[in-house]
Amino acid sequence: MPYLLVRESYVSGFCLVDGLPLNEFRTLGEKCSTQPENRDEKNRSVEFCTNPINILNCLEQMGYKVITSGAFVTGQSSIEKYSQKEFIWTLYKPSSEIECM
């Protein structure tokens, strides 16, 4: 599937990329000049401890384009400020570019 999600967590400070093809895990790490903190090849997700702008710029170099973005916030209470606070980008890469790689 040519769609993927990039999530920046304000709580943990990590940037998670979901849906990335396995052959592009290493390419993204090399372009970002950082190694992933966590990899889940079964679910095709990889987590980086870097600025999401860096991740988005590297994905753009790989042929992905941002098509939507938005904030996601849950769990506001008097005890804890937020249980989850993320900014999410959806990216798309045309199929012809995936086949060429």
Q: How many strands? A: 6
- Give the helix tally: 3
Low-confidence stretches: none
Strand content: 35-45%
Helix content estimate: 10-25%
What spatial order of strands do you see in the largest sheet? 3-4-2-1-6-5
- Multimeric organization: single chain
* Shape, per Cα inertia axes: globular
End-to-end separation in angstroms reads: 14 Å
Return the structural class. Answer: alpha+beta
Radius of gyration: 14 Å
Order of helices and strands: EEHEEHEEH
Query: What kind of sheet is the major sheet?
Result: 6 strands, antiparallel
Round the mean pLDDT to the nearest integer and report it.
83
Describe the structure.
With 101 residues, the chain is of the alpha+beta class. Helices cover 24% and strands 37% of the residues. The protein has 3 helices and 6 strands; from the N terminus they run ββαββαββα. It has helices spanning 25-32, 52-61, 95-100; strands spanning 3-9, 15-18, 38-40, 45-48, 65-74, 84-92. It has a 6-stranded antiparallel sheet, covered by helices on one side. The chain is globular, with a radius of gyration of 14 Å. 19% of the residues are buried. The mean pLDDT is 83.
